[in-house]
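Let us practice reading a record.
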Amino acid sequence: MSLFVPKFDETVLVRDADAEVIGGDPVGVRLLADSSASGGALSTVRVTLAEGADGAHPHVHHHSAEMFYLLDGAAEVLSGDDVVTAERGDLIVVPPDRPHAFAAVPGSRADLLIVITPGVERFEYFRHLQRIRLGELTPESLLEVQERYDNHFLRSEAWEDRRR
């Protein structure tokens, strides 16, 4: 096992009022700390989902683990072939190379703190998604940047069956 020691000298403090917010309803993403702010230790965002809204389609990260902490509401989270329901205060950590996805439970909102470690510069990824939502880019443009953001989409029958 190798030990990753991040390199940064200053405490990272992100005030709520200063965080960039992308989207809104049904999906809002609050950009908190990107990898460069933490010396590569982590990237973190807060995602709020309207009732039943999809947060992320099935995908995998080859170089990072992803942590989901439910601040409020309830979310369905795919991990491998399992779909679990997480509620306020629950924590899920998905290891590298494990397919995962998340969405608010039908009839419930979800407010999640999401941390990727080690960090990947992800803020531009979320801005890219917003440009797709606004029609400025095509969904296929994600294929061109999946290596850069270590975000590789895939199909999951378990997720598709649960979300129908």
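A brief commentary: The longest strand covers residues 65-79.
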